[in-house]
Structure of amidase:
Amino acid sequence: MIWEDTAGAEKARLEASIPQEWRVTIPQDVKSTLSLPQDTNVLTEAELRITNASATELVKQLGAGQLTSVAVTTAFCKRAALAHQAVNCLHDFFPDAALARAKELDQYLAEHGKPVGPLHGLPISLKDQLRVKGRQTHMGYTAWINKVDQDSSVMVDLLERAGAVFYTKTSVPQSLMVCETINNVNGRTVNPRNKDWSCGGSSGGEGAIVGFRGAVLGIGTDIGGSIRVPAAFNFLYGLRPSHGRLPYAKMANSMEGQETIHSVVGPLGHTVADLRLFVGSVLSQQPWAYDPKVIPMPWRQSEEEAAKAKIASGQLTLGYYECDGNVLPHPPIVRGVKTVVNALQGAGHNVLPWEPYEHPYAVDLANKVYASDGGADVYGVLKESGEPAIPNFQDLINPSLPKLDLNEVWDAQLKKWHYQMAYLKAMEAFEKKHGRELDAIIAPITPTAAVRHNQFKYYGYATAINVLDFTSVTVPVTFADKGLDKVNDTFSPLTKMDEAVQAEYDPEAYHGAPVAVQIIGRRLTEEKTLAIAEEIGRLLGNEVAS
């Protein structure tokens, strides 16, 4: 069987998993599909209210028996079916199994009078790297279709123990190493706000389905922006935790065994409170007992409370930068950074310029690491089926790029360590100069608002933070505005990449595209960084108080 037949059969299987009564016709000229749930009669009014609620609200009602898991799961299965028809965001859809699990959870609550765990009855969407026993994880590779997983990922097991319900696995780009989402099996996933814009990647299916509210919480991974970029492009919050905070064991991946820059797993959602619920629920299951790479560090309530006390007293000290020295962001992103700075200063906090310490060096180092096997892993999988490589990652992963030998890998690891130490020294110098602790840094996460298809070129705003292994939270800020975000007539390119990125800017094409920033904290400061992100969202009017 040729690869096209295998891919075609898999796509047909997925489409057939959507019940006939949940199918709709979407006119080709419709660009935004966000109103589709309200404009069709697939969901009832009660189901619309459920899917518009936060995860934090839902688990309270589920745990108290005010909502059944069957009702909540049905609502999200319906909305996920609409999401897929609108934006092509799924790799797998299993509503029957989800509803069977939901029924079991409802019976448990009725018999025992208490929930199974902190996520009792809550549907959660999974990026197609997380394995679910008895289902496949093809991850956009034709060669991996029909390979059934014999075990679940540790994260899946722990979430299930906490009471979660699984019903979807979402789309990723071939190789994962792209901040857009397209593969030869399922095609392209688009942005629910405008089908001409990317949903981001590699957790693009998660960004799209959560943005559409076909999921209230989604799980992504991040080795070079793959949680933060989809969150940014879909006006969501996303957490890139530091390596070792959450369990990655038994997840599928490209380039497994590459340990110089770690991929990490984390949530995407509509509120920081929901991200906190997710992290706290996973940590309550003691993941370090099942994944030896996880640090034995429960949720530190004292760290969260200390951060909130500092916020309440108006004593935060934050750095910010608009440009990393490689690529100047488009005007909407620059305005987004300034909007956050102004909001914090207006609340009495200290917000001071931060000079990004040798970020171009970190970006070059990251690119060498990503290409360190000369593309052998990715191209080896493609060779198994004969399918072609998508063109989107050819500049990052390519057999023509130099392959690192063992000593060169060791050297890259040493350079990373030295760079991390030098960055801490730069932060120490900032604190000595200003006589204050640097609580976090405000920065772009991408140089563009939600980008047009095949136009994501520069990963550096994300990858420098992966090299540092700092905690980072995406915060939605505003939307591109053609009336405010004019072309920069005084622009002079810093680099060839800068010239290419700036040439893509069109105020008309990007009007209305989501704009976000990332809040960067030190390594393993998830409690503090989330609290700061939540306060910024509150000041902007984009966050619900917990």
